[in-house]
């Protein structure tokens, strides 16, 4: 096993004719780390992930998994990467156990108890002998993770892992993913549920139009962006005008939100009081992932 | 190798449990058995009848066993192959399969091997049962030479159905929708079965025309028929009917149209090896067709871009 990051994309590029689907993507996922891959539809996430598992050959660049190059050793790479697409494709006429037995054979797993173990790990023990055609989407999702775990991968690639799961199931799934990372697995996960990404991911990479436009921890992505939320009583209109020099102001009834680059609560309260408004509640909060994501995409489109 | 074997086992397991496979098996079996029964009835009064006539249907008013196999073997091959690749692509199981340590050619090789194995199973079982049924109905068995001829006929039937399987596999690789590949496969089968005769004679009329006046000479007629037969031989159905007639009927001494103009030829019987020699060009043609379709399916599949459905 290589001592570097488990997954490393180096200047990855994919071109279809004149269209650049992925443009020089550099991305690393370390062991024990969960990285969120965000971006609007068509940003290039699918193509990037497809290249990472050797399904699509890169035009330029390379992907290294445990030091193995996807260009030179695609089979070695696939033995180390577990892929769970948003709609894992199983043979519907076969049972869960039979489906996983195929994966086990392809990966040289001879011990059948490993299949039972993987099924039990995702909470489907009682369903091992049921045809997958009778499974709900959430159950297929969980079986997809069991399928990926069967090969004991170094890297786990997940797309919308909680799609189709109820809130309890989602939480259980996210805990499972976190525990896999805590056990040393490198996890790259795509999700549109930003609060889940915020909860589970150590780092986030944002893709837009084939490029990674930002990556880092949530603090790094949000930069020095904060929001002061105030509930005012009295002359709100005058207070809003007085707050304009403090930061970007948005108003909803008596609730005022000011986007600032530092803790400016004192200045904001003084400005409101001078304008004849009384702040009933003042709160400072860091920008959420959703806000950071939105502003990154807006900045990218300008 | 491990990948191909796993795909082969998966295909066998999936197909043997499917209703589609059971239905096509029953269709081939019942049609064959029906043809043997009716032919046996028409042969019952003849003392000089030969055992293999049960299958060639000589003297029967109904379609022969060979005719049913020539029509239903393509259906068997098409039914097994028309959605072999595109169904796995649309369901996402191909992505799951290929995200494992398997070479891509292992998938197509496993599917080809599985198709041939399933066809061999159907043809082998149906032929064996109907062969036994023929013995029961006629009250006597075949000579060792007849049994050998029937065995070779079974092998050629497997080859013939495999040609259609490989064509359907190619179409399932080229077309993303199973309905499209099914329609194209069936369209090809309909043309090769029902329209090849009209097509070959029309084309032969252009290449080697027969004059209306003065009446055509023997040489002109032979050239016309020779051209029509050569064109018809692009159809696996025509080629299979030729091979079947040679293998199951020892009196067939040549496949050349000149036979029709040689009434003085002595009525001899060919030995099994001589019949095989006569059938060899047609068998080679079927093998070539199987190879061409398989190689094309392989090339298209290897060049195909298969993406994880990530968005």
**Helix and strand succession of chain B?**
HHHHHHHHHHHH
Structural class of chain A: alpha/beta
Low-confidence stretches of chain A: none
Structural class, judged by helices and strands of chain B? mainly alpha
Strand content of chain B: under 5%
Order of strands side by side in the largest beta sheet of chain A? 6-7-8-3-9-10
Main beta sheet of chain B: strand number and arrangement?
none
Radius of gyration of chain B: 22 Å
The proportion of residues in beta strands of chain A is 25-35%
Mean pLDDT of chain A: 90
CA gyration radius of chain A, whole angstroms: 24 Å
Considering residues with a beta carbon less than 8 A from a beta carbon on another chain, report the largest interface and each chain's count: A-B, 41 and 30 residues
Q: Enumerate how many helices of chain A there are, as a single number.
A: 11
Looking at the chains present, what oligomeric state does this protein adopt?
heterodimer
Shape of chain B: globular
Count all strands of chain A and give the number.
14
Helix content of chain B: over 70%
Q: Brief description of this entry?
A:
The complex is a heterodimer of chains A (302) and B (311). Chain A has 302 residues and is an alpha/beta fold.
Structure write-up:
The complex is a heterodimer of chains A (302) and B (311). Chain A is α/β, with parallel strands linked by helices. Chain A is 35% helix and 30% strand. In chain A, the strands form three sheets. Chain A has a six-stranded mixed sheet with strand order 6-7-8-3-9-10, with helices on both faces. In chain A, a hairpin with a 2-residue loop joins strand 4 and strand 5. The mean pLDDT of chain A is 90. Chain B is mostly helical and 311 residues long. Helices cover 74% and strands 0% of the residues of chain B. In chain B, helix 4 crosses helix 11 and helix 7 runs antiparallel to helix 12. The radius of gyration of chain B is 22 Å and the shape is globular. The model of chain B has no long low-confidence stretch (mean pLDDT 89). Classes of the chains: A alpha/beta (302), B mainly alpha (311). At the A-B interface, helix 1, helix 2, strand 6 and helix 3 of A face helix 1 and helix 6 of B.
């Amino acid at each position: 096993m290589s001592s570097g990051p488990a997954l490393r994309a180096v200047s990855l590029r994919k071109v279809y004719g004149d269209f650049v689907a992925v443009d020089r993507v550099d991305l690393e996922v370390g062991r024990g780390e969960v990285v969120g891959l965000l971006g609007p539809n068509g940003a290039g996430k699918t193509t990037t992930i497809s290249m990472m598992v050797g399904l699509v050959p890169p035009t330029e660049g390379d992907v290294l998994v445990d030091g193995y190059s996807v260009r030179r050793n695609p089979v070695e790479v696939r033995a180390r990467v577990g892929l769970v697409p948003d709609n894992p494709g199983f043979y519907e006429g076969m049972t869960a156990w039979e489906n996983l037995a195929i994966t086990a054979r392809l990966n040289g797993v001879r011990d059948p108890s490993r299949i039972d173990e993987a099924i039990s790990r995702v909470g489907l023990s009682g369903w091992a002998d049921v045809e997958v055609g009778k499974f709900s989407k959430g159950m297929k999702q969980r079986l997809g993770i069991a399928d990926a775990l069967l090969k004991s991968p170094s890297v786990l690639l997940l797309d919308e892992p909680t799609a189709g799961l109820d809130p309890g199931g989602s939480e259980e799934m996210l805990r499972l993913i976190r525990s896999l990372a805590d056990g040393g697995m490198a996890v790259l996960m795509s999700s549109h549920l930003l609060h889940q990404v915020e909860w589970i991911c150590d780092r986030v990479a944002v893709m837009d139009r084939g490029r990674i436009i930002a990556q880092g921890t949530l603090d790094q992505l949000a930069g020095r962006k904060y929001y002061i939320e105030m509930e005012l009583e009295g002359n709100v209109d005058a207070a809003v005008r007085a707050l304009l020099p403090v930061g970007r102001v948005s108003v909803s009834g008596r609730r005022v939100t000011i986007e600032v680059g530092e803790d400016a609560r004192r200045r904001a309260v003084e400005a409101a009081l001078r304008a004849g408004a009384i702040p009933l509640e003042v709160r400072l909060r860091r920008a959420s992932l959703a806000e950071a994501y939105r502003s990154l995409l807006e900045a990218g489109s300008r | 190798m491990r990948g191909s074997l796993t795909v082969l086992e998966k295909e066998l397991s999936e197909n043997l449990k499917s209703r589609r496979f059971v239905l096509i098996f029953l269709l081939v079996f019942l049609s064959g058995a029906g043809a043997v029964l009716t032919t046996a009835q028409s042969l019952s009064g003849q003392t000089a009848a030969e055992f293999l006539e049960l299958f060639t249907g000589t003297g029967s008013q109904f379609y022969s066993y060979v005719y049913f196999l020539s029509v239903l073997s393509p259906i068997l091959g098409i039914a097994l192959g028309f959605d072999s690749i595109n169904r796995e692509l649309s369901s996402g199981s191909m992505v799951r399969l290929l995200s494992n340590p398997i070479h891509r050619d292992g998938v197509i090789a496993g599917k080809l091997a599985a198709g041939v194995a399933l066809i061999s199973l159907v043809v082998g079982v149906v032929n064996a049962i109907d062969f036994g049924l023929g013995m029961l109905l006629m009250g006597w068995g075949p000579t060792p030479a007849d049994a050998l001829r029937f065995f070779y006929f079974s092998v050629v039937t497997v080859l013939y159905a495999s040609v259609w399987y490989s064509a359907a596999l190619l179409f399932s690789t080229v077309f993303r929708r199973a309905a499209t590949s099914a329609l194209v496969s069936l369209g090809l089968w309909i043309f090769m079965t029902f329209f090849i005769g009209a097509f070959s004679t029309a084309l032969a009329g252009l290449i080697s025309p027969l004059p209306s006046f003065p009446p055509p000479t023997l040489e002109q007629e032979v050239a016309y028929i020779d051209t029509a037969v050569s064109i018809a031989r692009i159809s696996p159905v025509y080629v299979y009917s030729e091979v079947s007639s040679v293998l199951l009927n020892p009196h067939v001494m040549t496949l050349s149209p000149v036979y029709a103009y040689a009434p003085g030829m002595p009525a001899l019987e060919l030995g099994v090896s001589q019949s095989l020699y006569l059938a060899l060009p047609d068998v080679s043609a079927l093998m070539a067709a199987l190879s061409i379709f398989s190689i094309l399916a392989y090339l298209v599949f290897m060049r195909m871009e298969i993406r994880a459905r990530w968005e």
